[in-house]
Amino acid sequence: MAPFSLGHYFQMVSQKVVSRPFLSSASNINLLMVVLPNKIFRRHNKMKLISELIQPLARVNPYWWFQTSQRVESKFLQENVIEEELNSEFRIIKVGGHKYFFPAISNSTTCRMIISELLSPDHPHQYITSETSYGENDIVLDIGSCEGAFAAVAATKGAKVIVIEPSRANCALIRKLFNEWQLDQPEIHEILIGPDSATMQFWDDPVNPGASRIVPEQFESSYPVAMLPLDELWKREKWPRLDFIKIDAEGYDMEILKSGKQLLKSLKPKIAVTTYHNADHPKQVKEFLESIGYKTKFKGILNTGNFSLRTVMLHAWHA
Predict the structure, then answer these.
(1) Domains of the chain, with CATH numbers?
(2) pLDDT per residue over 222-245, tens digit each?
(3) Per the CB 3.0–4.6 Å rule, which of 124, 153, 205, 285 could disulfide with 211?
(4) Strands of 192-193's sheet, edge to edge?
(5) 318 by DSSP, 3-state: which?
(6) Rounded CA gap, 152 and 131, in Å?
(7) CA 281 to centroid of chain Cα atoms
(8) Cα angle vertex 209, ends 208, 215, to 5°?
């Protein structure tokens, strides 16, 4: 028998060997273990494999089983004229009359991927949906702004943007981008959001701005960054309202949400939060937000390899 792949699994779905109601029913797990040949599970724990395949698929509309990031990014590259400049400071990606700035040594493919996520409405990593969107004069909080493209697009639509970005290098990119687009500079907080008030060591990834992160100890190219709970920042800044929060924080997304529980209960902003960095986050984020009155919807599937699937994003709103 040929090695089992995700494609084989989807073929079974399309042939109605496995249906979505089937996927949603925990009582059918044992039956699925019989339906799928034992050779599929060679060198894999059966129940762990079933869980890592079934749970993410059952969370999302079947549309997202096939609407992969790679498919959307390929379509984006085919349908758009993309120009690129490189100088000693920046790699500049030009799409649709706008320039987007990245570190000079950043990977060109990664930069184009980031732009496709932002500009493709049907991308699994797209933050805007019919339930979670913003409009003119809305206040948008961008936690984990990276190079600032999401924030800049929001500003062009008339939103007031508040940026939380701990990376010094990324904050320089954000300021450069807003200047280039002739936008008023956003309110920028160069801090981390987390469970406690503390000082953490942070490192800028020179190749991929989105991978800049907290490091466990100080080393030559790391630097200290203040951490503050979201509720504490809210009290300090006295924001009267927040209409939309975008969170993409390299695995700290759940801690950020929990640190802003009072803000979320009081201001009731719409939320788009990534859930693929940690296998436990989809369940944890959904349960937390629903416990404080939110409706939720998952979107997107990421194949991490080794028969492991992750749900890309959760959108949350109050009815």
Answers:
(1) 6-59 (no CATH), 121-317 (3.40.50.150)
(2) 999 999 999 999 999 999 999 999
(3) 205
(4) 192-193, 223-228, 198-203, 213-215
(5) coil
(6) 21
(7) 12
(8) 95
| Chain centroid, CA 92 distance in Å | 23
- The string of pLDDT tens digits covering residues 132-157 is 999 999 999 999 999 999 999 999 99
Beta pairing partners, 200: 225
CA angle 10, 124, 161 (to 5 degrees): 170
Q: What are the CA-CA distances from residue 294 to residues 24, 52, 177, 192, 203 (Å)?
A: 21, 25, 34, 25, 34
Q: Are 203 and 221 in contact (CB under 8 A)?
A: yes
262: Cβ–Cβ under 8 A, 6 or more apart, which residues? Answer: 231, 234
Phi, psi of 295 (to 5 degrees): -90, 145
From CA 131, how far away is CA 137, in angstroms rounded?
Answer: 18
| pLDDT tens string 28-73 | 444 444 444 555 555 456 666 666 678 898 899 999 998 999 999 9
Angle, in degrees to the nearest 10, between helices 281-291 and 46-59: 50
